Amino acid sequence: MNDHPITHPPRIIDGKAFGADIRARVAEQTARLRADHGIIPGLAVVLVGEDPASRLYVRNKGIQTREAGMNSYEYRLPADTTQTDLMALIERLNADSAVHGILIQLPLPPHMEAGAVINAIDPAKDVDGFHILNAGLLGTGQKAMVPCTPLGCLMMLRDHLGDLSGLHAVVVGRSNIVGKPMALLLLGDNCTVTVAHSRSRDLAGICRRADILIAAVGRPRMIPGDWIKPGATVIDVGINRIEQDGRSRVVGDVDFDSAARVAGAITPVPGGVGPMTIACLLANTLTACCRANGLAVPEGLTA
Ligand code: NDP
Predict the structure, then answer these.
(1) Is there a single domain that holds both residue 182 and residue 79?
(2) Tell me: the pLDDT tens digits for 269-288?
């Protein structure tokens, strides 16, 4: 429980609606590319193995890619595929001018070295933004392919708050795919950034100083309302499956009910960051296609 009074009803940041809006903008720009230049953006998604969650993600990505008017190329390889064979496929996709984005669905089977596989992708086609070159470009404030989840969070923050300059952002979590790129993007937008992690001392006190709080930990409801500064904007990246009242449900890293009494705005789980991630994958594919063809990247779809 928290002791803060209810100041006002918080705004729920609706990632489902905003994600649909981003996808509509991507579809509109894709239609324009086709009409004006005869170019169709293409996204190749590679799945190795039979992991049910990964199969579902790949299926959804294919559907949404086609709905945006793009070409979707799906490769489903058996779990015992060798890394050499996967690398050979990546080389073919790198050389294929109809393919503008390449996504290797993670996790890969244990016999593969994910870092080496990701770094075999042409950085210009690395729509997940995980290639070491893109990580370095982002880290040095240069134009990069940006990881989709933090890009989606940044878009929601800009949409809700406008100029982020001077705000204190706290990012809880320092993974290479969420926490670190998130912190770098917020720095790029002139926030004062604190990155917290499992060894941070006084996590509650750190969170209470945040104008913007990003939770990317993977621990169900670990951040209660009394860790949140009244009026703060809270972005909950966590996706945690729990059993409650005899049924399985998905919750975030933030305790939504108590946090919603204090925050100025908050993303729900589900329906917050999740839908933005796939929208940003499509936005990154469009960006990669425009850059590959020497065309301007449409406003508002990149960092
Ligand atoms: P990782 O497990 O790679 O990283 C988790 C981070 O949380 C680590 O930096 C870890 O610190 C930190 N952490 C763990 N326990 C604590 C603690 N008690 N206090 C403070 N920090 C802690 O996870 P990801 O970054 O990949 O994902 C984070 C969450 O976001 C997960 O729930 C995941 O499912 C979700 N996610 C959601 C996406 C979406 O589309 N909405 C996309 C990607 C992820 P340390 O480094 O010290 O170990």
Answers:
(1) no
(2) 999 999 999 999 999 999 99
DSSP H helical ranges for the chain: 15-37, 52-67, 83-95, 114-118, 132-139, 148-161, 179-188, 203-208, 256-260, 273-292
142 is catalytic: no
Annotated catalytic residue 105: yes
With 60 as the cut, is the pLDDT of residue 4 above it?
Answer: no
**Both tokens assigned to 212:** 């913007």
Cα of 297 from ligand 1 centre, angstroms: 31
Atom 8 in ligand 1: residue holding the nearest Cα: 173
Residue at a domain's end among 124, 155, 175: 124
**Structure token pair of residue 257:** 């009910």
CB count, 10 Å around CB of 113? 11
Where do runs of H (alpha helix) occur along 38-147?
52-67, 83-95, 114-118, 132-139
Looking from the CA of residue 179, the nearest atom of ligand 1 is 25
Task: Give the total number of structural domains in the chain.
Answer: 2
Pocket test for ligand 1, best of 146, 175, 273 (most atoms within 8 A of CB): 175
This prediction has a pTM of: 0.96
Whether residues 48 and 166 fall in one domain: no
Same domain flag for 151 and 266: yes
Structural domain boundaries, residue 178? 147-273
Task: Kindly give, in sequence order, each residue whose CB lies less than 8 Å from that of residue 7, ignoring residues fewer than 6 positions away.
Answer: 230, 231, 262
In this structure, the answer to whether residues 154 and 228 fall within a common structural domain is yes
